[in-house]
Specification:
- By secondary structure, the protein is mainly alpha-helical.
- Among the domains are: 30 residues, no CATH class; 29 residues.
- 1% of the residues are buried.
C-alpha cells in the first residue's frame, strides 16, 4: 500500500514558474496561473531528458579519454589575434561630454498669442449663448 502512495507522489508535476505541485487534473497552476503541461508534453520531456542524460554520459566518456598533446596543433597566430581584438575593445574611448545649452526664444510667439485669443473669444461667445438660451 505504501508503494502506491510513493508512486503517486512521484507522478505529480511541479510548476516550472513557482515550484508548486499541480493538483490532480489541473490544467493551470493554482498559485501562479501557468499552464500545466499535457501528458504528451511530459512524455516528450521525459524522453528528451533521458536522451540528454545519455548524451551527457557519452560526452563524459569521451572527455575521460586521454588526449595526446602531440596530436593536437593550435595555431599561434589565432591566440594573438583574439588577444589583440580584446585589447582593441578595451581601449575604446569614452564619448566626450557635450555642453547642451537651452536658449529661450526672445519675445512671445505672435501666431500662438493670436490663436489663444481667438479660442478665448469663441469660448466666451459659447458661454454667453448658453446663458442667453437657458
Amino acid at each position: 500500500m505504501e508503494t502506491s502512495t510513493v508512486e503517486n507522489q512521484t507522478e505529480h508535476l511541479i510548476c516550472t514558474s513557482c515550484g508548486v505541485e499541480f493538483r490532480d487534473g489541473a490544467m493551470f497552476c493554482y498559485n501562479c496561473g501557468t499552464a500545466a503541461p499535457s501528458v504528451e508534453e511530459t512524455e516528450f520531456l521525459e524522453a528528451a531528458f533521458a536522451e540528454a542524460d545519455s548524451e551527457a554520459q557519452l560526452l563524459k566518456e569521451k572527455q575521460a579519454e586521454p588526449i595526446d598533446p602531440a596530436s593536437v596543433s593550435i595555431p599561434v597566430g589565432a591566440a594573438r589575434k583574439s588577444a589583440s581584438a580584446i585589447k582593441r575593445r578595451e581601449r575604446r574611448r569614452p564619448a566626450k561630454p557635450q555642453a547642451v545649452e537651452i536658449v529661450p526664444r526672445s519675445g512671445p510667439q505672435w501666431p500662438f498669442v493670436a490663436a489663444a485669443g481667438v479660442l478665448f473669444l469663441i469660448g466666451f461667445v459659447i458661454i454667453i449663448l448658453a446663458l442667453y438660451f437657458k
